[in-house]
Design goal:
Length: 155
């Protein structure tokens, strides 16, 4: 039992530390560009989907609720980084949003910063270590999601 508690402490502390470092990196990079840290993932996924994504799709990809996605889309639209693919006020969450040319340029800067950060963060790992790390991390994450779903089913 003590070993399990120690693994819990090590895992949660490491995940929290990694998350906080990622947030600091996002904040530092986005401030240099006059943006907000929460813009990064939205623009990343929109950049991967040039045909656009709906707010509902962004909710799933960015693991955010509808209100947060809606606020960010409004903010990105005001700044000229995204635009609706088509305009239909009756289909707010089904309207696809896409990057503007300015959004694409900023997203390319994000990609460069991401590549540098990921390269530095994993600089001492070989390909095998990296593959094993992600395999184990995804396995643990899947198991944690199953546990969370069981709590929701119990309610």
């Amino acid at each position: 039992m003590i070993e399990l508690i120690e693994r819990f402490e090590s895992f949660t502390t490491s995940v929290t530390k990694a998350y906080k470092c990622i947030q600091k990196i996002k904040l530092a990079e986005t401030e240099r560009m006059g943006l907000k840290a929460n813009h990064v993932m939205y623009m990343h996924y929109l950049g991967k989907n040039p045909e656009g994504l709906t707010a509902t799709e962004l909710c799933k990809l960015c693991i955010e609720d509808k209100a947060a996605v809606s606020r960010t889309i409004v903010d990105l639209t005001k700044n000229g980084f995204v635009k609706p693919v088509e305009t239909d006020s009756r289909r707010k969450y089904r309207t696809k949003i896409m990057l503007t040319q300015e959004g694409i340029e900023i997203n390319n800067k994000f990609k460069e910063a991401i590549a540098i950060a990921v390269s530095k963060a994993s600089s001492n790992l070989n390909d095998s270590d990296r593959e094993n790390f992600y395999r184990v991390l995804f396995h643990i994450t899947d198991n944690l999601e199953t546990i969370c779903e069981s709590y929701l089913q119990d309610k």
